Amino acid sequence: MGLPISEMLSTEGKWFGRLGDAADSILSTRVRLARNLKGMRFPGRALEEELSGVIHRVENAAVAIPELEGRPLVQMAGLPVLQRQFLLERHLISYDLASNAGHCGLIFAADESVSVMINEEDHLRIQSLRSGFHLDECFAAASRLDEQLESSLEYAFSDDFGYLTACPTNVGTGLRASVLVHLPALVLTRKIKKVLAGVSQVGLAVRGFYGEGTDVLGNFFQISNQITLGEKESQALLNLERVVRQLLDYESKARDMLLKDAGRQIRDKVMRALGVFSHAYLLSTEEAIGLASAIRLGLTLEMPGLPPVEMINEILLCSQPAHLQLMAEHEMSSEERNAARAELIRERLSHHAAA
Amino acid sequence: MGLPISEMLSTEGKWFGRLGDAADSILSTRVRLARNLKGMRFPGRALEEELSGVIHRVENAAVAIPELEGRPLVQMAGLPVLQRQFLLERHLISYDLASNAGHCGLIFAADESVSVMINEEDHLRIQSLRSGFHLDECFAAASRLDEQLESSLEYAFSDDFGYLTACPTNVGTGLRASVLVHLPALVLTRKIKKVLAGVSQVGLAVRGFYGEGTDVLGNFFQISNQITLGEKESQALLNLERVVRQLLDYESKARDMLLKDAGRQIRDKVMRALGVFSHAYLLSTEEAIGLASAIRLGLTLEMPGLPPVEMINEILLCSQPAHLQLMAEHEMSSEERNAARAELIRERLSHHAAA
Questions:
Q1: Which of A108, B133, B191, B271 is positioned for an S-S bond with A115, CB 3.0–4.6 A?
Q2: Can you give the pTM of this predicted structure?
Q3: With a cut of 0.90, is the ipTM above it?
C-alpha cells in the first residue's frame, strides 16, 4: 500500500513543525535502537519467508501500541522510487532501505516522531526524532516504543553482551543517538577541523547532513555516539550531551569573534544569501542548503529583517527533490526541480516579507 | 577655485538625468573636437607661461558664450585629488587631466552637456555628451561651441590637412565620436568577439567603460571613430551610426536566441543580480557595474519587477568612488566605500520597491 502523501505533505502537527531547545544551532535530535528477534537469522542472511515472517510479527506487535494504532505498515517492495526517496528526505528510512526493494517495511506515527524500520540491517530499527536539542525526550520516546514492542516480541539478547545485532558495532545497547548541529561560525573562523578532531577523540562520530557517508552541507554536522558495548545508555547520552554543549559554547565564542573582526563582511554574506534565496529562479538543493545556512547564521547573530528559523527549516524540508515532485504530482528533471525549488522559496519568503 | 560640489551632486537638470533614444542599449553618446591655437606650441612642448596664456585666452573666449556664461574656469592645479577624480567619473575630464596637476583647466555648462578641457593633449578639447543614441545632436552641440569659441580664437588649421593636433591620429577633423553600448546578450551567446572584430575592420575602435585603456566592465563597450584625416565629419558620424545600428540589431537577435534557448537561466541570472544588488552590504564598483548590467539585460527583455533604467544609470553614476566620498564629505577606505555604495543602492532600490 502507498503512502498517505497529502497528509504527509502538510507540516501541521509534525515533529519538525515544532521548535525545540537551542533551535538556532540545533536542527534535530535523533535516537535509534537496533533490535533483532530471538532465534531468527539477521536480515542479510534470512530467507524471503523468514523476512516476511519478521514483518508480520512486528506489524502485529505494533497494532497494540497507541502511537502506531491504525498506522498501516508501508511495504518497501512495490513502493514507487519517488515515495521511497520522500521517506528518506523525511529521515524515516535509511539509504539502504530506500534502495532495497526487498522484504522490508516501515511503520511510523502520524506526527512522524517515532517509527520502526523492519528488515533494514537489523530486524527492527526503532527511531525517535525531535526538533532542537532533546536527547532525553528522544531516548524516552524510543525506549517506550521499544518496551511496548518487547511486550509481544522476544528480542535476541545476551546477558554478557546485551542486544545482539547484525553488525558488531551495534551490539550492546543498539543505541545510536545523534544531534544535527549547525556550526557556521566555527567553519568561517577555520576552527572546525580542530574542534571536530576533538569530538572524534572522545569516541563520537561526525557525519554530513543526510547521515552516514554523506557530505557536509551548509555547515550542518551530525554528531553521534559510536560505543554501544560496555557503556550504559545513560552514559552514552550524557557524553554526547556534554560534547554538544561544548560545541555550542565554541560556536558561540566563534560568533563573537566574527562579529568583532568581520561584522560587516558577515552581514554582507548573510544579506546576499537572503537576496539570492528570495530572488533566484533556479536553485539546486546544495545551494539552497548553503544559503539557508548563511541566513541561520544571521539569525543567531540577531540580524534584523531575516525570516524566522521555523520558516528556513520548513523550506529546507519541503524543497527537497522528492517533496517537490510529490507536491507537483509529476516527475521533474533536475532543472525543473531547481525552478520549482526557487519558486517555492520565493513564495514562502514573500509571505514573510508581506507579513 | 573649487568645484560647485553640491550643485553637481544633484542630478536635476543634468544631461544624464534625461533618457535618450535607444536608452535600453545605449548609455550615452559623446563627441569631442580637438583644437589648438594658432602659433602656440602644443601643451606637451609649451612653457608654463604659454600654458597660462592659453588658459587665459580660452577663458576669455568662453565668457561670451551663453551656455558657459557665469561658469567659472576650474583650474586643475590645486584642485583636490578627490574632486579631479569626481570630474573624471562625470566624464568631464580625462585620466591625463585628472593626474596632471599642471597648467590645465576645465569649463563646463551647468547641465554638463558641453565642456572644454584646456591644455590636455591639445589646447582645447571641446566635448558634448547626451544620454542614449544622439550622434547628430551631440555633434551639433560641440560644433556650435566650437564656432562660438572660434569667433574669438584663431585655430591652428592647414588647408591641406585640416585642424592640426598634438597627436597625428587626431589631425584633420579632430573629431572623436563615441557611443557607449550595452551588449550583454552578445557576450552571453559568445558572439561578441566576432562582432567586435568586424567593428575594428571598418575602422572603428572598441574600448572599455571608462574609455581609452580601460577594461570592459559589465558588457559596456565604447565604440568610436578612428579616422580623422581625409574623411568628412558627416561621413565619420554616418559610418559610426550605421555600425552601432548593426550592433543593436545583432544584440537584439542574440536576445531572442537567449530567451528561446535559456530563458529560465537568464531570468535566474537577472533576478539573482537584483537580489544581490538590493541586499548586499559591501559592493565594489566592478561588481556593482556587473550587477547593473544583468538588471539592464532583464529590462531589455521586459522582465517584470525590475527598477527602471534611469534608476540603474543614476546608481552607476552616483556610486562611483569620488561621488560617494564627496557625498559623505570625508575620505573613505576601499571597504568603507564598498559599504557606502551598497547602502546607497539598497536605499534607492527600496524607494523603488515601496513606490
A1: A108
A2: 0.90
A3: no
